[in-house]
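Sample 3 of the quickstart, ligand phosphoric acid mono(formamide)ester:
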Amino acid sequence: MITEGLKGRDFITLRDFSKAEIETMLDIALRLKADNVMRRQHTDVLPGRTLHMMFFNPSLRTRISYEAGIFELGGNAHFLEPSATRVPALEGEETAYLTERISDMARVLSRMGDAIAIRILGDVVGWEYDKGQRIIQEFAKWSEVPVINMEDNISHPSQGLADIMTLSELYGRDLRGRKLGVSWAYSPSTKKPIAPHHDFMYAASLFGPDIVFAHPPEMRIDPEIEKAIQTNLEASGGSYTVVDSMEDAAEDADVLYAKNYVALDLLPPVTQEPQHEEMSKLFEKYRDWTADKKRMDLAKPDARYMHCLPCDRGFEVSDEVLDGKWGETAFDEAENRLHAQKGMMASIIP
Ligand code: CP
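Result:
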């Protein structure tokens, strides 16, 4: 495996990696996936390595795929629940004997393992937009082993890697001429992160698709990430169009990626406190934004529906779409979490 320049690196955002580096991780992921299908073992890739996994938020896919992934590469995982270990704290935010300063935790964990993976977003950081990523960066500053972001409010790079792996299995690495319809979708919850949208579009933008992104005017994404997506698309031969209806995103699309996410303008730092009640009222205005058969019928006959899961059935997507000919790809996408993360861990963990 040629992983030059990748060993020892942190995996915090996809923007920290070049397209070539992301392709290296994908190449390894695809080889390991083929091995899985053939029931070949590859426990010699990271033998005896330990992954510390720290979850501040619930998870099904991320926990299981990292745990199974490191095990299949020959290592093992520790699931650390912060309430059972003590809450990591930034300098100045400590409470005696309830929290532990991140600089200390990172150095201790580094001495007992080979990588530290962290998920921290939403309520546990008061919806402060960049706080989760600042905490993960603080771990990375003090850790002597790679730090992996398992999702914060801004980024979900493991998901983005699995998404682009899924797209490349469908269409190859050259996505020029492919229309990716991307959309906000309705959910009664006001707590679904925006990170998967960011990283779905960011990862895809490296490979030249035509992204048509539909959202109600109040549901903007991070302008810095939007700019990076546009810059990538200019370089890769794709295009970026923003529209205001899911129908426009779905029309003639190869893929419709439709999922709910929070309204950033009703969260800190724009507001002092998260405005969930107001957000709920706002979402009700767009209650019919569901990926349903009527919308999928506007897309190409062999179009796929994608969603990082978990999804809110009957709200973000209808049962007919998720369980029909369009929805299987969302489960390929979930499976690829395992393979893509194995490719990434094999690349960065020394
Ligand atoms: N897509 C994803 O990250 O799923 P989990 O929240 O179940 O980990």
